[in-house]
Amino acid sequence: MINYFSVIPFLLIFQILASSADQKQLQVYIVYLGEHSGTKTSQEIEEFYHSYLYSVKGTKEEAKNCLIYCYKSVINGFSALLSPEEASKLSEIDGVISVFHSHPTKIGLHTTRSWDFINLLEGIGDLTPPKGEELLRKASYGKNVIVGVLDTGVWPESESFNDNGMEPIPRSWKGKCKSGVGFNTSNCNRKLIGARYYLKSYEANFGPLDHRLDFRSPRDKNGHGTHTSSTIGGRRVPNASSLGGFASGTATGGAPLVRLAMYKVCWPIPGLTAAEGNTCLDDDVLAAFDDAIMDGVHVISVSMGGSTSRPYIQDPIAIGALHAVKRNIVVACSAGNSGPSSSSISNVAPWIITVGASSLDRIFSSPIVLGNDVIIEGESITPFKNMTYPLVYAGDVEIPGTTSNNTNGFCLPGTLSSNIVKGKAVFCRRGEVFQSLEVQRAGGIATVLGNRYDGRGVVSKPYLIPATVVFADKRIDVYNYIESNQNPNVTLIQPKTVVGTKPAPFMAPFTSRGPNVIEPNILKPDITAPGLNILAAWSEEAPPLNVPSDHRVVKYKIDSGTSMSCPHVAAVAALLKAIHPRWSSAAIRSAMMTTAKITNNMGKPITDSLGNIASPFEYGAGHVQPSKAADPGLVYDASYMDYLLFLCGSTRFLLDPFECPRGLPSPSNLNYPSLAIANLKKVVTVNRTVTNVGAENSSYSARINPPQGYSIKISPTTLHFRAMGEKRSFSITVKAESPGKKNEFAFVSVSYISWNELNYCIVSTRFLLDPFECPRGLPSPSNLNYPSLAIANLRKVVTVNRTVTNVGAENSSYSARINPPQGYSIKISPTTLHFRAMGEKRSFSITVKAKSPGKKNEFAFVSVSYISWNKLNYCIVKYSELLTQ
Fold first, then answer.
1. Which of 57, 374, 565, 839 has minimal Cβ neighbours within 10 Å of its Cβ?
2. Closest by CA position to 378, among listed 267, 502, 461, 488
């Protein structure tokens, strides 16, 4: 019996479909060309972009009509409505660095006491309270520093943005206050000096903005942007508090006299509530970066990002930030809220300050008392009085057939029976907003929610019915009580604000973690700051729960996320910029990282929410200490050219036309204030250079505490500086004394005095899923016995192997069939496979030869077959994806 199997290339099918439906499948793509050079006028730049589009569209009218954004300031590129085939053709043109889809859901938001806690206004440990105030005075409260905020807009009437007593706007400011619906130029002042909005790409993807969902202007209907911008630079507002009077005190931004500029780039997703998320389109974001750079901002705060990391050449935040950093603009970004999963961090480019989230020393205590008088600790910011309720477990009162074993007891929408729930309190196994809404829908009058995260770290919400969140490990106590009593009841105790809790900080359970999947030789996050239950200004158009049934109005709100921690670091960067205006963005990051703290208010190592000692994959260099960052002694500086060389050694995908040197530098040698060595085999030596920004005639001695299994040498052991600005280099040699175990990481402090650390020389053994010693001759990834085949970066000839197992008829034979594409020769050996029995295995090889050099991003697809219903699907041959030939 002879059968044939054909390989149908997936990407080939995609291209065929695209070619027949191009006009129906137009999508927004960004075409990135690097940076503007020369003195082209705005019209000349636009005509230049039209020429690119004309080459794929065929007519000048189509080229003009499909254009969405022309980036004309510093970023060289545009966005347009293109078919996948047209985008592919543009990517092949000389001078084009990257072409990538502006996906409508790639980027989303990363959503008082905090400044006291991080030592800006009140000291802990050896730092006395006047130190923070001294820093503010020294920085003139940041009065001439301009911070650009990319977010959901701003509520300009908030008292946090009043400009009483502020000096005139700096002459360096070139930005605009753009009018729109519910917003005009009079809404800007000497505090809020600029406001723009960007929604061309949003409307290209979702259609015209629904005026019921948001303002077509810089005005904030979500609250997020108002919260982040007031955290950075809000004025001091006494007697501020959240709904119910929680967290009462003086609300203030970290740099109360900085100037703020809002760049509204995030918008509601049609069909979803604000609580379910907003979206920030890639090309809208890139347009905001382009304007912010030319407007004259000194710091950019970006509390948004993807749920995972993206390659630099496809990441508008990484691209925009690099152009900003080239002009000495500091860019701080949130790390993401995908924790506690490892390798979940976003915004990992090394020119960005990536900020994790940790707790304050403040909770909102609201214990519950069960009917058997057992008290269980809980937290809440929902205003209510002490009250006793009959209590039921959600899993016992569900509508039959609406849940499974996996979803039982979770209070999912539409699952609770109104006949039983009405007038009772409901215990939900885990939950937040939507669980409380389901209890309310079913007639429940209160709820006890199991914390969605294990351990401590409750993300507090102002629910619409009395609600308390209990820690996850206490859920079983509540459940056992309910199930063992005929008439269970519960008393919810009125919440109260408690300050001075210990231990603090601990890492917020939601904060995204490393390692860095894009470049494991760069440690991310860089630093952590308060991001759990932070009070700041809010939009009066956004209800505190951000759901349609909530009609309450608040001026200040408690919110959580790395979105809240990022503006803390942006504010510190603004203060350092005011004190040290000539410092580079890298020096400012270094100052914060090398002075960060890795102990809590009990003098012990910072932990995660479960009480386990946290690692640099969670907090980076540690918890920010602004006063100490103002005088770090030494800094690790890096230039724009250093970042280009890093890209050469890391990905070889450059964000600027640049010819990489032949001897590619190791990514670990980027002059970064932390060090990560991935896949350490035996011995690695890395280099660093420090610049003296401290005292003249100073010396620094090395101190190392190597982890078990490693030897570490630093040379020289002493650094001498005669003057400010002098640079000294040193090397660190790391040796693994024995093979590492799977996913083993060793952390070591390498310092040149206790308060100026190269925080965490991180040595990572091979990233393997099992303890295993790799062979000397490492196998090609293409030889994994996979039912499809891709050969990347084909140069001349490659042979790959596959093995098939007979699960069909006995005594069967299969003959090869090949249809090689033009420019390639392909041989398969043997040409016939014979099987006598079920379960027998046979191996074959495929040899692919390129007859001539390929073009950039060229793909060839070939059918390699042994039978039609047993496919080696998609033998894909791909040329080197180089940016230049």
1. 839
2. 461
Kindly give the pairing relationship between strand 192-197 and strand 353-358. Answer: unpaired
Query: Exposure string (b/e) for 503-523, b if CB count within 10 Å is 16 or more?
Result: bbbbbbbbbbbbbbebbbbbb
Alpha-carbon torsion 300, 301, 304, 306, what sign? positive
pLDDT band at 468 (very low <50, low <70, confident <90, very high): very high
Let me know if residue 387 belongs to a domain.
yes
- Quick check: is 637 in a domain? no
Q: Which pLDDT tens digit goes with each residue over 323-335?
A: 999 999 999 999 9
- Is the domain of 88 the same as that of 174? no
Is 563 catalytic? The answer is yes
- The HSE-up count of residue 536 (CA atoms within 13 Å, CB side) is 34
Q: What is the rounded distance in angstroms from the CA atom of residue 492 to the CA atom of residue 512? A: 33
Sign of CA dihedral 506, 508, 509, 511: negative
Total domains in the fold of the chain? 5
Domain co-membership, 521 together with 585? yes
At which of 101, 130, 158 does a domain end?
A: 101
Q: Are 869 and 804 in contact (CB under 8 A)?
A: no
- Look at 21-30, 481-490, 623-632 and tell me which has the smallest mean pLDDT: 21-30
Per-residue tokens: 712: 């570490």
Residue that has been written with the tokens 């820093």 in this structure: 135
Instruction: Tell me how far apart the alpha carbons of residues 306 and 100 are, in angstroms, rounded to a whole number.
Output: 15
Quote the pLDDT of residue 379.
97
Same domain for 732 and 682: yes
Given the residues 83, 158, 242, 563, the one annotated as active site: 563
Same domain, 454 and 411: yes
- How confident is the model at residue 859, as a pLDDT? 58
**One domain for residues 175 and 320:** yes
770-to-708, 739, 747 alpha-carbon distances in Å: 21, 13, 21
Q: Taking a C-beta distance cutoff of 8 angstroms, is the pair 665, 648 a contact?
A: yes
Question: Are residues 146 and 269 located together in one domain of the fold?
Answer: yes
569: CATH: 3.40.50.200
Distance of CA 114 to the CA centre of its chain: 22
Whether residue 686 has pLDDT greater than 50? yes
In the Cβ-directed half-sphere of 434, how many Cα atoms lie within 13 Å? 12
> What is the C-alpha to C-alpha distance for residues 531 and 457, in angstroms, rounded to an integer?
11
3-state SS class at 601? coil
Catalytic member of 36, 50, 110, 224: 224
Question: pTM for the complete prediction?
Answer: 0.82
CATH of the domain at 681: 2.60.40.2310
Contact 516, 745 (CB under 8 A): no
pLDDT tens digit sequence for 736-781: 887 665 556 667 666 655 334 444 344 433 233 333 344 555 567 7
* Residue 94 in domain: yes
Domain with 826 in it: 784-878
Helix axes 562-579, 224-233, angle to 10 degrees: 30
* 237 and 122 inside one domain: yes
Picking from 573, 600, 629, the residue at the C-terminal end of a domain is 629
Instruction: Mark whether 476 and 527 lie in a shared domain.
Output: no
CATH number of 449's domain: 3.50.30.30
C-alpha 179/C-alpha 31 separation (Å) is 29
Q: Is residue 643 part of a domain?
A: no
Closest to 317 measured CA to CA, from 342, 363, 354: 354
Q: Check: CB of residue 581 under 8 Å from CB of residue 312.
A: no
Is 656 designated active site? Answer: no
- Residue with token string 């809020």: 192
Number of H helices, E strands in the chain: 18, 49
Q: Which of 50, 79, 110, 151 is labelled catalytic?
A: 151
Cα 557 to Cα 227, 245, 379, 425, 449, distances in angstroms: 8, 10, 16, 26, 21
Q: What is the per-residue pLDDT across 73-99, written as a single tens digit (0 to 9) for each? A: 999 999 999 999 999 999 999 889 999
